[in-house]
Design a protein that fits this description.
The chain is of the alpha+beta class. The protein contains 40 helices and 28 strands. The strands form eleven sheets. Strands 11, 16, 19, 20 and 21 form a five-stranded antiparallel beta sheet that branches. Strand 17 (about 480) and strand 18 (about 485) form a beta hairpin. Helix 22 runs antiparallel to helix 23. The termini are far apart.
Length: about 1300
């Protein structure tokens, strides 16, 4: 970037005279005496101002219009000096004159007054003069020239000029122009004094002499000089004069905060859900009111609340069915097993999905559609590979915090990562990574073959070594300035922190800050640990020198994984192959080569998460297997009747074979379900293998215990055959099994209406598995029970059925749990005071739990998804500690049908940001205004705007150039092409539609260089999509075609603020969509409906976090569907018993609310995994409720209390043995899983489901039935059904 060359001269008196006039020659102290290339100094002249010629007056009007009246009395600068000023003002003019003219004219006022004011001597003082040979027209003369001057400036002049310019945007860097104009300080560290001190310093690489500023708020200095304080115009006001080109307006809100009104600043609605009633939390008020109301209803119920509905039964059918199966057990075993095995064959076609996007994002979801559009029309987002290197203090290796006095003699504190030894280790690691080789199709390849190259050369590696172009020798380079100040690598580092685009001319050591691959690297990309603890956002004045970690990002080109194009397929394969080699190398380097005494690292690639998720699942297979083995052992032991302690009695009464077949039936049911949907082409997920066996085992084992224990407690009646006995038991129990299985299956099948693929797949597989399990239990398992009971009656050993033991009489057998329920628990629970206390206690627990539900956090922090021993988990933890920048966000203008013609000025005016002809509110200005409140908008920067940059490019003769040729077809001149081969496009005004169409492609192909920083290739080459249009070139030759293009799609890139938690991520998504909606409304304003376009935001994380925007709605909808389906099925199968159906539904609601409260108390977040578990909890809750409720409905007794006691005794022990204790034994093992998902979402939630469900099913439900169950008049009908 060229900076102004300022020309100064001194006179010794303070009267209104000159201190110089004209330029004389080269500075003899520089050693360059060539007038064509040297830095010329001004001639000393201490006389009065010289009369201004007409040429000088004309130049003054063009260059320094505010001096037009003053020079009537004389002038202190020559024509050459004015031409030099005009030349040096060219670059600032192209940067911001048209964008913010008030800033520009305030800016030049300083240097115009310095150079030409007729009262120079009042505020300028010469401090150093040199004598040397003159240059034309002073050749062959020794002339006196000024080498240093002191400029007396009032602080108001300095401050007001800075204020008028400090917010002027530079869209190409998504920053302000101070990023360029303030040299090594950049925009973040720039102050009014630093700005002008840099511009006047010899160290800026452009100034031929030193200009030292003395600032004061007084009028006169001690030696009588005036502190220069001309009038400065506020940036919101138009300049009070014109340079003759045009009349200028004031700066706009985008570039000038004073120009902003309350309308310009966005008012964002809080994303926090607030429900206030009577000044208190609404949910708490409702919960308290509900508790009071339900308690009143309960008390009223004591006065005779009854229900009268008809009970009907399907007992006779199942009695007949059970007898039939028992008569032909082997046939039923063969047929049912053959059917299940045949269905399982479909597993060979099973497709297992592990891609997180395919798991959690619906193909029809907005974020998925928008991602596919972005990937197709632009390119898939890059595959970043990152290494975070944290320094560990170690004095022995000199890796410590240290102090350093910079070139301005300010004491700076540096973190341990800036010790040379540590930095060289970082460079060595980077170079080793560059050398990594991988084999693809028989060829050895390296990083060069897969990395992203923004300008076509050099890999896009963002590392601190970019500031030295990856050259270790430059780290030791030291420079001594004219005042004997030593400049070291630390000074260069601070300069690059402030201005990553600093050129070598502006650096005292002649080292540029730009990376070798051609772009600036911002310090917040490559440093971590400098943000103070407790800061929720990016600090206003970041102290980069206090960083404790270095972040190296290697950007790999990405490709669409669904593309069939050979280039995309091979490109993705090569990228993943390199990533695999990188992971292996980093693991080995960390283990064997890393200097662990003072360094700790974490790393990650694009493929890492998916790799670790797959490893996580298979890594916990042993844990899952042990869990199922323990449940199996418990089942086989608990099913047996152990009336004696002899070996003979144990082997006869044992149910090991029966338990084994019961578990095998469950697994066979799951495999048959998987086979069915495998054949149907419904992809499976790993959740299916982890959860569904657990769910089906819970239901299946419960039914096993009820069947077996009911038979064990039932004595065969006289004249009743074995088959009839089995049939009677099946007739008594199967309706309850049907009730639970049908309601649960219906619940899951309706749950498949969910848009979330993982939830839908789980619901389908689970619903089918439960149906098949019910079928297998009333066929195969009933047949096995029949055979096993015959074995036991014949006193044959279990397992070794060929061996026969001593015969014993068959009698009614009661298990320990049954005896406990019958003699102790049921009588105690049915005590009047216990029942009343139970009702009120559970009502209180429900209301307290309901008040806790809003405290559940939504989301799934990414580190929770990783195994505890995963290198990715360490990376996620490092990312939270050392992340210093948010992810990029692209605001995409979807112009698929070319509805908007971007060659038209009116359309450009709606999209641009700071250009004078932009509309007052544009899509670009909206991003700028939102970025001013990052704590609410989650937008950290304004957008990089291609329209503004294009307009600057086309109006800059150093940028828009064509090759010298006689051809009628104009060809663009690349930025790198020598000026001698090119000529300017000559477009000074707004480009016409035709000019836009043939130059837009030139702009997008132009590389940004120092001579032309506006080239759009690096910043917008991928972000603006154009397509060729054919039209006759009427301007040049009607017989020739000038290539023309139209803009189809484009995007504006910005950055989110720092995002660390799930809530940060999905709130950022929500805010971005709000902003995109405003942008869409703005760009479509006054456009006919057929020309409307859509603007949407895209960031790589949106597709994962969109689900959380509607997670509560999805959860409530899924649970409501489940509850309604259960209510309908139970209502029908309980003989249209409304009260019993309502009771079951109410108990399940109580269970769900308590489980949700446990999630709040036990830090279990609400996400897709916990939603699946909640849907499963509804299904398992049916098991806790339906058997006891139906038993109560069918039970005869003098009153409801007696009937509730009988139902609890009969079914309670089976529910306790079948679900509670079986699951409890298996759940405990999950606590030792390596995966945090297992320990949090499976162990904690499963434990809550079992304990809460058991408490409500075995305590609360019997008491509720004793109060509100079906009226006693149903007993007669129940008795008839039994007979």
């Amino acid at each position: 970037m060229r900076v102004l060359v300022f020309l100064c001269l001194f006179v010794g008196k303070i009267a209104g005279d000159c201190i110089w006039y004209d330029t004389c020659g080269c500075n003899p102290e520089t050693g360059n005496s060539n007038p064509a290339t040297c830095k010329k100094l001004n001639c000393k002249y201490d006389g009065p101002p010289k009369p201004a010629s007409n040429q000088q007056k004309e130049l003054i009007k063009q260059v320094c219009p505010h001096l037009a009246k003053d020079v009537e009395e004389g002038i202190c600068c020559s024509v050459d000096q004015l031409n030099l000023l005009k030349e040096n003002f060219y670059t600032p003019a192209t940067l911001f004159k048209s964008q913010c003219p008030t800033c520009y004219f305030n800016f030049v006022k300083n240097f115009c007054d310095l150079t030409c004011s007729p009262r120079q001597s009042e505020f300028l003082e010469s401090t150093k003069e040199v004598v040397g040979p003159g240059s034309p027209p002073y050749e062959n003369q020794n002339v006196t020239m000024l080498a240093e001057v002191l400029y007396y400036v009032h602080t108001d002049f300095n401050q007001k000029t800075y204020d008028s310019c400090k917010n002027v945007q530079y869209p190409l860097l998504s920053d302000t122009i101070m990023k360029l104009l303030c040299g090594p300080y950049g925009s973040a560290a720039c102050t009014p004094e630093r700005w002008w001190n840099y511009l006047g310093s010899l160290g800026n690489g452009y100034s031929p002499f030193q200009i030292t500023y003395e600032y004061n708020n007084q009028s006169l200095s001690a030696n009588g000089h005036v502190y220069h304080n001309p009038e400065v115009t506020k940036c919101s006001d138009p300049p009070p004069f014109s340079d003759g080109d045009q009349m200028y307006s004031g700066c706009k809100c985008t570039d000038c905060l004073d120009a902003c009104s309350t309308v310009d600043m966005p008012e964002l609605v809080s994303t926090e859900w607030e429900f206030i009633v009577m000044g208190a939390n609404g949910v708490t008020v409702i919960a308290g009111s509900l508790f009071a109301g339900l308690t009143v209803l309960f008390i009223m119920g004591q006065m005779g609340f009854v229900g009268d509905y008809l009970l009907s039964s399907v007992t006779s059918f199942f009695t007949w069915w059970g007898s039939l199966v028992a008569k032909y057990p082997k046939a039923f075993i063969f047929v049912s097993t053959t059917i299940a095995i045949g269905l399982s064959i479909g597993i060979i076609n099973l497709e297992v999905t592990t891609d997180p996007i395919e798991l959690w994002a619906s193909p029809l979801s907005r974020s998925r559609i928008e991602k596919n559009f972005f990937d197709k029309e632009f390119r898939p987002f890059y595959r970043p590979t990152q290494v975070i290197m944290k320094a560990i203090e170690n004095p022995y290796h000199n890796i410590t915090w240290f102090n350093y006095s910079d070139v301005q003699d300010n004491l700076q504190v540096f973190g341990p990562v800036f010790n040379k030894k540590f930095m060289l280790d970082v460079l060595n690691l980077q170079e080793n990574i560059k050398k990594l080789q991988f084999s693809y199709e028989g060829k050895n390849m390296t990083l060069q073959d897969v990395c992203n190259k923004p300008l076509g050369v050099g890999c896009n590696i963002q590392n601190i070594w970019a500031y030295w172009q990856d050259d270790a020798k430059l780290l030791d380079k030291e420079t001594v300035l004219y005042d004997n100040t030593k400049v070291t690598y630390l000074d260069h580092l601070m300069s690059c922190f402030n201005n990553p685009s600093l050129t070598w001319q502006s650096d005292p050591s002649d080292i540029p800050c730009m990376a070798g691959w051609g772009a600036p690297v911002n310090p917040y990309f490559i440093l971590g640990g400098f943000i103070p603890n407790g800061n929720t956002g990016f600090p206003k004045d970041p102290e980069y020198t206090k960083s404790t970690a270095i972040v190296m990002s290697i950007i790999i080109d990405n490709f669409d994984p669904k593309s069939k194009d050979e280039t995309d397929v091979k490109g993705l394969e090569k990228a993943m192959a390199w990533e695999k080699v990188f992971i292996e190398f980093m693991k080995d380097w960390e283990q064997n080569e890393m200097p662990s005494e003072y360094m700790e690292i974490a790393f990650n690639t694009e493929r890492s998460v998916q790799d670790e998720l797959s490893r996580e699942t298979y890594g916990d297979l042993a844990t899952i297997a042990i869990s199922y083995i323990l449940m199996f052992l418990y089942i086989t032991i608990a099913l047996g009747q152990y009336n004696t302690f002899s070996f003979n009695g144990f082997m006869i009464e044992s149910k090991i074979t029966l338990g084994l077949f019961g578990v095998m039936i469950v697994l066979l049911s799951v495999s048959a379900s998987i086979g069915i949907f495998g054949m149907a082409g419904v992809p499976a997920t790993l959740i299916i293998f982890e959860i569904i066996p657990f769910l089906v085992l819970a239901v299946g084992v419960d039914n096993i215990f009820i069947l077996v224990q009911t038979y064990q407690r039932s004595e065969r009646q006289k004249c009743e055959t074995h088959a009839e006995h089995i049939g009677r038991i099946v007739g008594e129990v199967a309706p309850s099994m049907l009730l639970s299985s049908a309601s649960e299956s219906t619940c899951f099948f309706l749950g498949a209406l969910s848009d979330m693929p993982a939830v839908r797949a789980f619901a389908l597989y689970a619903g089918m598995a439960l149906l098949i399990d019910f079928f297998m239990q009333i066929t195969c398992f009933v047949a096995i029970i029949s055979l096993d009971m015959q074995r036991q009656e014949n006193s044959k050993y279990d397992i070794f059925c060929c061996l026969q033991g001593k015969k014993k009489e068959k009698g009614i057998s009661e298990s320990v749990s049954y005896k406990f329920f019958k003699a102790i628990y049921a009588p105690f629970l049915m005590n009047k005071w216990v029942r009343n206390i139970t009702i009120i206690s559970f009502l209180g627990l429900f209301c307290f739990s309901l008040a806790s539900v809003p405290n559940i956090e939504v989301g799934l922090d990414q580190e929770v998804s990783m195994p505890e021993d995963s290198y990715v988990l360490k990376y996620f933890l490092f990312l939270k500690d050392y992340l210093s920048v948010g992810p990029p966000v692209y605001f995409v203008v979807n112009n698929t049908n070319a509805a908007l013609d971007f060659s038209e000025m009116e359309v450009q005016n709606k999209l641009c940001m700071g250009h004078p002809r932009c509309d007052s509110i544009t899509t670009g200005s909206l991003t700028s205004s939102w970025s001013k409140i990052p704590e609410d908008s989650y937008l950290a920067t304004s957008a990089m705007n291609w329209v503004d940059t294009y307009l600057n490019w086309i109006n800059d003769d150093a940028c828009c150039r064509i090759k010298k040729s006689n051809s009628t077809i104009k060809e663009p001149c690349p930025t790198e092409e020598p000026a001698s081969n090119c000529e300017p496009c000559g477009i000074k005004d707004d480009p016409t539609s035709e000019q836009f169409q043939y130059t837009i492609k030139w702009f997008l192909d132009a590389n940004p260089l120092e001579t032309c920083p506006h080239g759009g290739h690096a910043a917008f080459g991928d972000g603006v999509q154009v397509r060729s249009i054919s039209s006759k070139n009427s301007k040049f030759d009607p017989d020739k075609l000038q290539p023309k293009y139209q803009v189809v799609h484009s995007n504006l890139m910005s950055f989110h603020s720092i995002l660390k938690t799930s809530k940060d991520y999905y709130t950022a998504l929500m805010r971005a969509r709000e902003l995109a909606n405003e942008m869409t409304d703005r760009i479509n304003e006054n456009e006919p409906e057929e020309n409307h376009v859509n603007i949407f935001p895209y960031s790589v994380f949106y597709v994962y976090y969109e689900q959380y925007l509607t997670m509560w709605e999805d959860t409530i909808r899924s649970l409501l569907i489940s509850l309604v389906s259960i209510f309908v099925v139970t209502f029908i199968l309980l003989g249209f018993d409304l009260i019993s159906s309502i009771i079951i539904m109410v108990i399940i609601i109580f269970i769900l609310v308590n489980i949700l409260a446990v999630m709040s108390w036990w830090s279990i977040t609400l996400n897709a995994v916990s939603l699946v578990n909640l849907v499963m909890a509804v299904g398992i809750s049916v098991e806790f409720c339906s058997h006891i409720t139906r038993s109560f409905a069918m039970e005869a007794g003098p009153d409801k209390v007696a009937r509730a006691k009988a139902a609890l005794t009969k079914m309670g022990s089976s529910v306790l043995s079948g679900i509670t204790l079986t699951k409890f034994s298996g759940i405990l093992v999950l606590a030792f899983a390596k995966s945090q998902i297992f320990t949090i979402f499976y162990f904690r939630m499963y434990l809550a489901i079992v304990l809460v469900g058991a408490a409500h099913g075995l305590i609360f439900l019997p008491v509720v039935l004793s109060f509100f169950g079906p009226d006693a008049k149903h007993q007669d009908k129940s008795e008839k059904l039994r007979l």
